[in-house]
Amino acid sequence: MSDIIYTKVDEAPELASASLLPIIQKFAEAAGVSVGKMDISLAGRILAAFPEHLSEDQRQRDDLAALGRLVKTPEANVIKLPNISASVPQLVAAIKELQSQGFALPDYPETPASDEEKAVRAKYDGIKGSAVNPVLREGNSDRRAAKAVKSFAQANPHRMGEWTSDSKTHVSSMSGNDFFSNETSATLKKATGAKIVLETASGETVLKEGLEYPAGTVVDATFMSAAALKDFLIKEIEKTKDEGILFSLHLKATMMKVSDPILFGHAVKAYLAPVFEKHGDKMAALGVDPNSGLGDLLARVKDEAEILADIDACMADRPPMYMVDSDKGITNLHVSSDVIIDASMPALIRAGGKGWGPDGKEADANCVIPDTSYAPVYDEAINFFKENGKLNPATAGTVQNIGLMAQKAEEYGSHPTTFEIPESGTVKMILDDGTVLHQHAVEAGDIWRSSSARKAPIEDWVNLAISRQKAEGCRAIFWLDENRAHDAELISYVKPILEAQGLTDEFEIMAPREATRASLETITKGENTIAITGNVLRDYLTDLFPILELATSAKMLSIVKLMNGGGLFETGAGGSAPKHVQQLVEQNHLRWDSLGEFCALGESLIFLADAKGNDKARILGEAVETATQGILDNGRSPSRKVGEPDNRDGHYWFARYWAEAVAVQTKDTELAAHFAPIAKDLAAKEADILSELAGVQGNAVDLGGYYRTDAAKTASVMRPSKTLNSIIG
Asked: How confident is the model over 243-263, as a mean pLDDT?
């Protein structure tokens, strides 16, 4: 096993790796550090799942499973780039591309009938959504802005949209019968197995069996009423029309891969209700599934003139929709994975509450977030900025995050125990001794789910928060609502640990709404705070605050302190990656910013130095920090415009600053002597290298694929400077 594992992923981060990784491997080699690569891309995971359908030379090792074993060991040192959390349309597109490349994969069975189709569907369902993170995150999250990044953002504040007190933008959520209001929670006193059953007038159906929970696990159960959701969506559509603003839906259909696509489908049906009422049977016969979105629906009815005319008439009568791409007519309801709440809501808030409408103009919006569990965070943020105006990035403090996510904690681990109820009845979670831990009366179409958080990750999370607060000495808040069933159980863990260490006065416990306002008040004063949160809020807040503070969440330092002693170093968000790829293919310009990769690399090398006593690795890691500062101070980050410096230029400058930093240090003369000629060559040949990089821009390129690019073609595109390549090797 290599000393450091660099993950092969998808889209823009993976394209950038073709340029950056050879530099990392060459430099690390001088310190006796090996950097290997393992494939967790969507295409790689698909191929690994179906060896029986592939020839011997096409078969691919299951690297995700191998990494899942590695992260449970003290030796783990993994740099994890953002990968695709696939929606069904993305999964189907990837399968079709792989089939076109000669891989005899089975089609994705949308309505599996035979046992064979059901088995195929089960394999594919194990790949979609957030299939990677729960496997690798065997530790809790420590996310914060690197000092160099925060300092640069304050010295070079990004543009913020203006907020006014009369803005019509607001958040709308259900008033009851949602996941929040129906939640029950309990902490298990002893280890036990469990099963989930649905009892109806026609008998009992086992929804899930073989569940195992260790002692101390917090186990939740809840459901959302489909009828209540339908009524809510219809009312919000009408209300939005009356208000004359945009209708926007904000979900997390990638992470919540079972429940949120269903919620998304309900919104599609509600928005096009007259069309479904009139043409529902015909559209069903054409394979229309509202969960797949408006884009898939339009593709399936493209030859049905009457249906298309009724869709146009319906949409003309509806409120204008928040657009993903107004130039291309791609709406908020086209594809569930196009609008992800933790990216879409912060972007709208940063823009002064404005979203793009179908007319290509900005407008206020009704931000529809059906479940009330975390909607108050965005609602309170909007209220705060209406009252106080936009945040000033030049003077704002920072919100760090300590997030509970280890071992599939909380909602993001609920995929195997989420069900769309087929028949009215009662869902029960029954323990091995016959105890009914949870039960809910449900109706057909309701969405029931259970999630859990284990004792060891919870205690590790609290202690990680204590460690971070001690290091920072700033305000620290547990974002927990004592009136929410699950949070009340967590509070029963938090308080005794704080009391035992005499730290009760160093921490506050607040519900998310109050914690949002407190945190915004704190950073507005230029002070710092730590948000100590559960898994979903970890995800949401580490986009919300960085986008407000830094303009992006891709530049965050993201460290996962693995519970068994290893380290997982994440490199930031990848939500805009598809647009980056599109621009590269059309114009040979990649605007992806690798700053997140730089930050993760430095931490990884220093972690390796501590773990293995490798002083040369420490010097390289410290030099990475110097190089990163050089990128920021000298404005070497990629431009968005073709013809200007892009990702590849940034990698040249990073290599140069890195080499120069190692060459001038005095702790290790051998390393300095090794890197001095590299630094000299990179500086002396600057003009040639930059000319070669600039010379390829402006023309379309062929990568040989989207989900599985051709390695040789990608290397040719991403390493176009022969001069740079000759220096790096």
From this structure: 94
